[in-house]
């Protein structure tokens, strides 16, 4: 009867709770994430006679595992592998909100992009070309909502069910430039036999190793990948020399660069001040 699980992800204050309530109504329960006092909300909605379970993730700005909230969100996505993820964004702050969206896509989430707070954007001279935005993000389905009024929520339910039924799309890639891409492919190739069985993307794992992500390092170690870790450290050092900045900073800057380019292409504002606000990062 249950079609699958959808997780809601987004920065704090983008309207995630409003979306969660509008989707699930009274059919929700509140508990805690295992081992921590961070609130976990779960609920269900029914669309086209199919039941979908909804999990509200903590509000986060990214998927680095340095804060408890980010760790909870990333662990859930990696280990529970929900059928779909709705990235709820505050559309009046699109550029800043897209950083998490890009990280979710790189992680391999089967994403639906929810442009929330659309009521605050409309009629103000801002135009979002959803086709261009979707194409730039590897073809993610996009839904517009004004969650506090329930606008767009029925459409969101349908799109989520479709996404769950279709399953994962193609791998999304940010182009990190030839130096970094060479290191990524080399590592990803070595990782294929180690992490594919866990359902982790070798490319994502390679990027995280180059960033020096402690959790991913531990995971690769557990898979007997000591040699790969050694190789990753060497590659990271030589990459740092070539790039002139540490890989973690470099990858983050490339993601921001990619997002700036995408917003320039897909968003136009007729009022100068509004344009400035939309591209504020
Ligand atoms: P969360 O922190 O992501 O869970 O955000 P909340 O659901 O608590 O919403 C934050 C604030 O934004 C609340 O005051 C909501 O009423 C308001 N809000 C949520 N969605 C919308 C929307 O689509 N349009 C407008 N104008 N306000 C919204
Ligand atoms: K809030
Ligand atoms: Mg909330």
From TrEMBL:
Entry binding sites for GTP: 10-17, 35-39, 56-59, 116-119
Compartments, record wording: Cell inner membrane; Cell membrane
FeoB-type G domain mapped to chain residues: 3-166
Residues given in the record as Mg(2+) binding sites: 21-22, 24-25
Similarity comment: Belongs to the TRAFAC class TrmE-Era-EngA-EngB-Septin-like GTPase superfamily. FeoB GTPase (TC 9.A.8) family.
Main function: Probable transporter of a GTP-driven Fe(2+) uptake system.
Protein name: Ferrous iron transport protein B
Lineage: Bacteria, Bacillati, Bacillota, Clostridia, Thermoanaerobacterales
Gene of this entry: feoB
């Amino acid at each position: 009867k249950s079609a699958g699980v959808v997780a809601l992800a987004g920065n704090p204050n983008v309207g995630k709770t409003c979306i969660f309530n509008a989707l699930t109504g009274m059919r929700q329960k509140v508990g805690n994430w295992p081992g921590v006092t961070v609130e976990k909300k779960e609920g269900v909605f029914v669309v086209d006679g199919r039941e979908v379970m909804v999990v509200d993730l903590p509000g986060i700005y990214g998927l680095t595992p340095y804060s408890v909230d980010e760790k909870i969100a990333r662990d859930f996505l990696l280990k529970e592998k929900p059928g779909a993820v709705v990235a709820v964004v505050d559309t009046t702050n699109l550029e800043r909100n897209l950083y998490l969206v890009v990280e979710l896509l790189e992680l391999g989430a089967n994403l639906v992009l929810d442009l929330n707070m659309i009521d605050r954007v409309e009629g103000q001279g801002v135009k979002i070309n959803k086709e261009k935005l979707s194409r730039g993000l590897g073809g993610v389905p996009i839904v517009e909502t004004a969650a506090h009024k329930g606008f767009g929520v029925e459409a969101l339910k349908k799109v989520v069910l479709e996404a769950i039924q279709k399953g994962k799309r193609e791998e999304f890639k940010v182009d990190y430039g030839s130096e970094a891409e060479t290191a990524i492919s080399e590592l990803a190739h070595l990782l294929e036999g180690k992490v594919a069985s866990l359902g982790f993307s070798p490319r994502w794992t390679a990027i995280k190793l180059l960033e020096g992500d402690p959790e991913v390092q531990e995971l690769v170690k557990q898979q007997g990948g000591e040699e790969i870790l050694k190789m990753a450290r060497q590659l990271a050092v030589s990459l740092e020399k070539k790039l002139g900045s540490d890989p973690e900073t470099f990858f983050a800057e490339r993601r921001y660069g990619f997002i700036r380019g995408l917003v320039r292409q897909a968003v136009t504002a007729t009022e100068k001040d509004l344009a400035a606000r939309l591209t504020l990062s």
